[in-house]
Design brief:
The complex is a heterodimer.
Chain A (H helix, E strand, L loop, with lengths): L6 H7 L1 H24 L4 H15 L2 H4 L12 H36 L3 H29 L8
Helix pairs in contact in A: 2-3, 2-6, 3-6, 5-6
Chain B lengths: L2 E2 L1 H8 L3 H8 L3 H8 L7 H11 L3 H4 E2 L6 H8 L4
Antiparallel strand pairs in B: 1-2
Classes of the chains: A mainly alpha, B mainly alpha.
Chain lengths: 151, 80
Amino acid sequence: MMQPESAMPRFAQSPILFRWAAILALLPATAGIVIAIGWPQFSEIGFALVAGGLALAVWLPLIGPLRLGGTRIADEFDRMIQTRAWLAGCAAASFAAVMGLLLLLGLAMAGNWERLTLLLALRSLLSYLIVLLSAVPCLVITSGASADEDD
Amino acid sequence: MLHNRIALFRAERGMSRRELAEAVGVNPQTIGYLERGDYAPSLELGMKIALVFEVPVELVFSFQRFEPVSRTMMRAGPGE
């Protein structure tokens, strides 16, 4: 029987590269969203950091281990791991969306923010959510990957 | 937890993980995960593995821990 092409060997061969790419996307973006929401006067600096993470993160679904079209005939274990990774990404983004919106609402009301300030913070939050959706699945799937030695 | 004797049957037949993986249509890594008990296979994969070893599926997979081979051999006695 033909050996199926799968994501597993591909990312098992170079998981560290994609793991670090995901971490390098998440770290500045997380720092950026904290700055953008916590210190609205520095919202541009915060957004720049989020955008930097976003610029890296958007490539992960295209060239990373979970790239579209690259895992059509993966085996059942691959599909289970991929599903778990995407669910982790969705859960992280959903949690960040709810918490971010509540936080923005509270801070905007407490600080009597101007509309533009709120819009800039929302811009950073939306970009951060895309970073989470793109980078977290890659981070999850490469964290558990290991190349098994055949015996 | 689902226990299995894949490694035992594989060793008995002199099969590598890659050979078994090719026979059942999965990646060798998946066989490794199965053998370590990190992943419970689908019914289809479990039956395919049993078919490769030409034994009933309950000889390969069990919800109870399998008896060690040494104990089975001792019980069977010499010459068996």
